[in-house]
């Protein structure tokens, strides 16, 4: 038996209370799953707590900055680790930067992968560095996909809130 | 007659100068986070991405109440910035706090011996910022 007409209208309307609730629930479930899977740690919670009415886009801003930074660094690392003679100090400096920014944003798996990467740099282990770079990339792109979804959901929720206020 | 309470500027009260913190970090992510942490405590914040820019700003605006700087930065480190500030007759009274992601006792001691007010481990937390409250230059 199909749901009553009023429910169908509410479910299908883009700004219906039901769809807003569903969006919020989807966002919460996504973020919770990211904590459970180790993609995020407590530091991300700190960022969420810093976001307020005066800076509603704070988390999105930090995520965007992190992704820009990470991709710039990964590009440089790819070039450096691909050299015949690897400049391990330079590689380490970049990995240190990425470890720092991933720590600040709460990107746990990326941070841990960077810590392992630095070990290989210290050992001047080129194969180790190549593998570690792939691991970092794996964790980063997994995280970025989830961040993209998170930001899209937040934008839709904020669009609804703006519409309600106008 | 007392001045009216409440102001239209971020933080502070009418008639009282808002505390100004200079944040120095080459990481855009860390700059955004530390600036937000400080603004949440109602400080006025100027964030720059290098020690060189920090010194340029201090040259034109020395009335900064605190400098909070990352240790590891290219060209000039936070430690070198700390030394330059403490060597300057106009800037030496400004408290300097160092931030680092590395818990290196030698590094920490070196900074404290050079006159750093405090050493914070990254990621910096709201509780870290709270404990700096009473140590701003008045």
Automatic annotation (TrEMBL), chain A:
One function term, GO molecular function aspect: histidine phosphotransfer kinase activity
GO cellular component terms given for this protein: cytoplasm; cytosol; nucleus
Residue positions, PTM Phosphohistidine: 96
Localisation per UniProt entry: Cytoplasm, Cytosol; Nucleus
Record Gene3D superfamilies: HPT domain (1.20.120.160)
CDD domains: HPT
PROSITE patterns found in the cross-reference section: HPT
Boundaries of every HPt domain copy: 55-160
InterPro entries: AHP1-5/YPD1, HPT_dom_sf, Sig_transdc_His_kin_Hpt_dom
GO biological process, one term: phosphorelay signal transduction system
Keywords assigned: Cytokinin signaling pathway, Cytoplasm, Nucleus, Phosphoprotein, Two-component regulatory system
Coiled-coil parts of chain: none
Pfam families: Hpt (PF01627)
Keyword Cytoplasm among record annotations: yes
Function: Functions as a two-component phosphorelay mediators between cytokinin sensor histidine kinases and response regulators (B-type ARRs). Plays an important role in propagating cytokinin signal transduction through the multistep His-to-Asp phosphorelay. Functions as a positive regulator of the cytokinin signaling pathway. May play a regulatory role in salt and drought tolerance during plant development.
Domain observations: Histidine-containing phosphotransfer domain (HPt) contains an active histidine that mediates the phosphotransfer.
Name by which UniProt lists this protein: Histidine-containing phosphotransfer protein
Source species taxonomy: Eukaryota, Viridiplantae, Streptophyta, Embryophyta, Tracheophyta
UniProtKB/TrEMBL annotation, chain B:
PROSITE patterns from the UniProt entry: RESPONSE_REGULATORY
Highest taxon above the source species: Eukaryota
UniProt keyword annotation of Lipoprotein present: no
Alphabetical keyword list: Cytokinin signaling pathway, Phosphoprotein, Transcription, Transcription regulation, Two-component regulatory system
Pfam families: Response_reg
Job description of the protein: Functions as a response regulator involved in His-to-Asp phosphorelay signal transduction system. Phosphorylation of the Asp residue in the receiver domain activates the ability of the protein to promote the transcription of target genes. Type-A response regulators seem to act as negative regulators of the cytokinin signaling.
Family: Belongs to the ARR family. Type-A subfamily.
Protein name as it appears in the record: (wild Malaysian banana) hypothetical protein
């Amino acid at each position: 038996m199909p749901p009553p007409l009023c429910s169908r209208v509410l479910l299908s309307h883009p700004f219906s209370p039901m769809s807003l609730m569903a969006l919020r629930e989807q966002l919460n479930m996504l973020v919770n799953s990211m904590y459970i899977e180790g993609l995020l740690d407590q530091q991300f919670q700190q960022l969420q707590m810093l976001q307020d009415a005066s800076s509603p886009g704070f988390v999105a801003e930090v995520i965007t900055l992190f992704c820009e930074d990470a991709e710039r660094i990964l590009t440089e690392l790819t070039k450096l680790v691909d050299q015949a003679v690897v400049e391990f100090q330079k590689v380490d400096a970049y990995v240190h930067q990425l470890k720092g920014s991933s720590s600040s944003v709460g990107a746990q798996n990326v941070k841990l992968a960077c810590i392992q990467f630095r070990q290989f740099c210290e050992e001047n282990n080129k194969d180790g560095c190549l593998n570690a770079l792939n691991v970092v990339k794996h964790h980063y792109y997994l995280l970025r996909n989830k961040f993209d979804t998170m930001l899209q959901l937040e934008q839709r929720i904020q669009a609804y809130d703006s519409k309600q206020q106008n | 007659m007392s001045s009216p309470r409440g102001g239209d500027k971020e933080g502070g009260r009418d008639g009282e100068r808002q505390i100004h913190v200079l944040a120095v970090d080459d990481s855009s992510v860390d700059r955004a986070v530390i600036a937000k942490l400080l603004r949440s405590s109602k400080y006025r914040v100027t964030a720059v991405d290098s020690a060189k820019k920090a010194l340029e700003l201090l040259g034109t605006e020395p009335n900064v109440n605190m400098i909070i700087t990352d240790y590891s930065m290219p060209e000039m480190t936070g430690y070198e910035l700390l030394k330059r500030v403490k060597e300057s007759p106009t800037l030496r009274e400004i408290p300097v706090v160092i931030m680092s992601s590395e818990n290196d006792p030698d590094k920490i001691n070196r900074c404290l011996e050079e006159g750093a007010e405090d050493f914070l481990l990254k990621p910096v937390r709201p509780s870290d910022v709270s404990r700096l409250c009473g140590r701003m230059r008045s």
